[in-house]
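Appendix C: a fully annotated inverse folding record. The material below is reproduced so that readers can follow the format used throughout the book. The structure is listed first as tokens, followed by the designed sequence.
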């Protein structure tokens, strides 16, 4: 039998991890985009 408090905590923790991963992915995507834009800008001069 699972302790109910542990289950609630695990669910909350899992949601935080998922949110963290999504935010990290968004930041990485933005960095990649700005890096690409920077490279294009540099090569166009």
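Designed amino acids, in order:
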């Amino acid at each position: 039998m699972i302790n109910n408090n542990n289950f609630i905590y695990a669910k909350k923790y899992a949601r935080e991890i998922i949110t963290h991963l999504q935010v990290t992915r968004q930041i990485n995507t933005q960095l990649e985009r700005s890096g690409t834009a920077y490279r294009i800008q540099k090569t166009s001069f």
